[in-house]
Amino acid sequence: MKLAIKLAFRNLIGAGLRTWLNVIVLSFSFVIIIWMKGVITGWDHQAKVDMTNWEIGEGQYWQKDYDPYDPFTYSESHAPVPQEFRKEIERGDMEPFLITQGTIYPQGRLQSIMIKGINPKQNIFLLPSHKLDTVVVDAIPSIIGSVMARNLKLDVGDRVMIQWRDAGGTFDASEIYITDVFSVNVPAVDQGQIYIPLDKLQSMLNFDDEATILTYRDSEVARPDVEGWIHKSKQELTKSVDDLIKVKTAGTSIFYFILILLAMLAIFDTQVLSIFRRQKEIGTYIALGYTRREVVGLFTVEGTMHAVLAALLSAAYGLPFLAWQAKVGWTMPMDTSDFGMAIAQTLYPVYSAGLVITTVLIIMTVTAIVSYWPSRRIAKMNPTDALRGKIQ
Amino acid sequence: MENTPVIRIENLVKRFPMGKSEFTALNGIGLTLSKGDFAGLIGPSGSGKTTLLNIVGSLDMPTSGEVTVLGQSVGTLNAREAARLRKESLGFIFQSYNLLAVHTVYENVEFPLLLLGLSASERKKMVTDALEWVGLTDKAKSKPPQLSGGECQRVAVARAMVKKPSLVLADEPTANLDAANSHNILKTMESLNRELNTTFLFATHDDKVINYLHRKIFLIDGKVEKEELVTN
After folding, report:
1. What pTM was estimated for this model as a whole?
2. To the nearest whole angstrom, how far is the Cα of A272 from the nearest Cα of chain B?
3. Taking 70 as the threshold, does the pLDDT of residue A265 lie above it?
4. Closest-CA distance of chain B to residue A16, Å
5. Which residue ranges make up each domain of chain A?
6. Which residues pair with A101 in a beta bridge?
7. The complex's ipTM?
8. A388: nearest CA in chain B?
9. Is A6 in contact with B114 (Cβ distance < 8 A)?
10. At B1, is the pLDDT very low, low, confident or very high (cuts 50, 70, 90)?
11. Which residues of B touch A11 (CB under 8 A)?
12. Number of domains making up chain B
């Protein structure tokens, strides 16, 4: 083995450009595979972080009738804020949301919306709710997301009519004034959502001091069961994202292996070519005292050493590149808000030691296999034909 | 010359499949070579020279008959034993040199010693000696593509001789060389034969080589036609 490594190293160094071209291609594969997997992991990670920052905090209480997938429940899904949460709300560590269904009439068109009442002074979410803390004559201050604004052709300073039903079931309408348009990559926070001050919505609906959702900041505090309210932990609330990630992981794993196989083609190609181009050399090894098995071993080690050299080269330029990417992220060249899914404009790759080690081990193993496989043909070659370089 | 048999061949037959029939390359060869012989198999193309050399070199197997090289019956050797025989006791010189193109001259000559597992200091001394024998000390760091044909064949001779084998098999060693280089190579091999008492067996139809041989074995159609001994 020691001799095979020594000879393989000599062969690789002696082959010069041929070796380095293979090593460079393979090292690109290492870096690109790790980077791409890191971007996808970072995307998943970011989706959960954004969901936490913009939508669910560290967990929520839902009024028992609230079903986010059934807008017709919204008119019933409200209740007075429980007494036991008052102090937490006063400290700003819990924020009530009141939600109702409504209709908006931009440029005479009609569209269903969810009207959400939010405390303008809250700081659990990244929503720019402070923009609601303003006095507007004859209109309700409101903020909307950029996708919603684009779809409805609305902008900051625009006024538009909205309609809702109050506690008695009576339709009512008022004008809203857009005080801010925010950009977010959580579709559920943006599309079809209008945010207005909580106390304003409570008075519009005659639901004084009532809420639909209570979102808390601190995940360390034990959460009691409260009658009429259902506790939703962060794990429950992010389950849909986790399920999506699992499905996506299966898809990206296929993509990951396709990338690895493409990288292996370079080595496989080289090894197959070697059999035809290096027959005389193989015959010479045998004439000088190598067994066929040792020749196969030499070629396998030689192929695998491509991967070792590629890993070293990748470490030299890849580690700084990957670290830099993790810091500055990868900014999409086009506007991602049109994608219809939770994807940030800038994705920050997340790498794990497991990802790097697995990728290196997989590439080493596959390289050894694709080197060994064509080398086996050598074992069947007649040494006297090999010495003459006779293609079989 | 001593009378120790290095090669003993009795009634050797070698047949190759050719379509549905067989081609007989060697037909009842009988031959004995002693230590220190400087002998050659002489004959036209297709006479069986290279086939016989390959069998003696344990690169091929006899169809029938007995071939004993350095006391070992070639026909009964398994792959590992045949490889050991080649590694420890045989040297090969080929028509087209068969040097490892990506290795330097030094590394090419060192290769058989690496296979023998010798230490670095032993290898260095033996390679230096071998390069001195063939006059290529100054080319140690060159690679084969940078050398002339004559120089390449001298490297091949050094590689074959570096481990001081008992038997050197040379298949048309001068076929790709001009007259001057051919004589140079042959003189080198002749002097190594004299100094180290190494047995040489050539396969050739080149007159330049034939003129140097001490023992000439003429092959025609796979049979020994005649033998000539040259007395100095």
Report:
1. 0.71
2. 18
3. yes
4. 8
5. 2-53+241-388, 59-218
6. A114
7. 0.92
8. B96
9. yes
10. very low
11. 100, 102-103
12. 1
